[in-house]
Amino acid sequence: MRILHISQSMDPRWGGPPKITACIASSQAAIGHEVSIAARAEQGREDSIKALLGTIPGMDKVAMELLEPVSPLREILSYKAGDGLEELVRSSDVVHIHNVWDPFNIPAAKLARKHSKPHYILLNGMLDPWCMNEKRLKKNILMKLRWREFLDGATALHCGNRDEIELIKPLGLTAPREMIPNGVFPDEIAPPTEDAGFFKDHPELADLKIMLFMSRLHHKKGLDHLAESFAIFARDNDDVHLVVAGPEEGSGDDFRARISRHGIDHRVHMVGPVYGPQKWQLLHASECFVLTSHQEGFSVAITEALGCSLPCLVSSGCHYPEVQEAGAGRVTSLDHQEIASAMHEIFQDESTRQEMARAANDLVMSRFTWPKVAEQTVAIYEKALGPEGATGN
């Protein structure tokens, strides 16, 4: 089967979607399919893209097509994208579009319909009510312009969690829904066999008991709630330190101010973005993972932490009820006292954390690996292609 993935960008500065695109693509290639990714070329970002792709097992089997960009207005109004996109769509059996709001996706979907190719749109949580209320007027205008047609014309909408299927119902979209989660590579989450260097760069953290936040420093991630909750927890738990790892996206200064106001600067360590072996070393050295987001699709960060046997404390907006259902951690509201109480529960004794750690790894290995995701995606493609199968016409 010839599978084409469409992504606005493969630059890791866009968060999870570029990595999700690459992981699904490489996993499909690993089970014998001919897989390509088409994305915008971004001048000056080549090294960042190369670095991301270098962390994904099996990417050498995926063809990468970086298309020269055209103006967003031209993409929306004339359905034109970078040169070469139409031939890529025409020669594929199925098209998988990643993300919702970027104009680059509009011509991709139009070309898929033109050439009668089944095409799927991975929502990445972008139609969740919380996200729809962000820049609400702009999104309402876009829905009236092209986006409702774009979404309704899909063979199916790819939802990342079971909540998402219910949450998008008020939009009245007509395309079918398919629920397929994200995953991890089993080999990827193993502890580094050699010193990856994180603690050489941060020796002050080497012997600490760490609660880890690892995500973008964006207001969606609820860093304000994390600061206030950790301040409550820290009053009675003087041996736990909070490490905040991730690129700055507008919320770092407010978080620092809150931590300083509570007088716990010495208990909170902001280390910037951490990638590759250093990331895995930090995950395996931590005691607990925390993410108090307002909204997530299907968080790769949570899944990676669970796979590394970390108990997880996540907000209900992460839409990851499996954490608590499996006994792998706690799911809370954004009430600060409730979050602080869950932190205390996780850290109250070693045996509790060990039980959660085992449940965390078991959950991911049994349900949330990229090879399993690849099989699920191929199954829905085959359902659409019918008994005649792939044609590539």
Outline the structure in words.
The structure is a single chain. The chain has 393 residues and is an alpha/beta fold. It has two domains: 2-183 and 369-385, 3-Layer(aba) Sandwich (Rossmann fold); 198-367, Rossmann fold (3-Layer(aba) Sandwich), CATH 3.40.50. 43% of the residues lie in helices and 16% in strands. The chain has a seven-stranded parallel β-sheet, with helices on both faces.
Summarize the entry for a quick read.
With 393 residues, this protein is α/β, with parallel strands linked by helices. 43% of the residues lie in helices and 16% in strands. The chain has helices at 16-30, 46-54, 72-78, 85-90, 105-114, 129-133, 136-152, 162-167, 198-201, 223-234, 252-261, 276-285, 300-307, 322-325, 336-347, 350-367, 370-385; strands spanning 2-7, 34-40, 62-67, 94-98, 119-122, 156-159, 177-179, 209-214, 240-245, 268-272, 288-291, 312-315, 329-332.
Features:
single chain, 393 residues, alpha/beta, Rossmann fold, 7-stranded parallel β-sheet, 6-stranded parallel β-sheet, 13 strands, 16% strand, globular
Residue runs with pLDDT of under 50 for 5 or more positions: none
What gap, in angstroms, lies between the N and C termini? Answer: 12 Å
CATH-derived topology of the largest domain: Rossmann fold
Give the fraction of residues assigned to helices. 40-55%
The biggest beta sheet reads:
7 strands, parallel
| Residue-averaged pLDDT | 92
Structural class: alpha/beta
Estimate what percentage of residues fall within beta strands: 15-25%
Global Rg: 21 Å
Strand arrangement, largest sheet? 3-2-1-4-5-6-7
Please report the total strand number as a whole number.
13
Total number of helices: 17
* CATH class label of the largest domain: Alpha Beta
Q: Architecture of the largest domain in CATH?
A: 3-Layer(aba) Sandwich
The CATH H-level homologous superfamily of the largest domain = Glycogen Phosphorylase B
Number of structural units classed as domains: 2
Shape: globular
Q: Provide the succession of SSEs.
A: EHEHEHHEHEHHEHEHEHEHEHEHEHEHHH
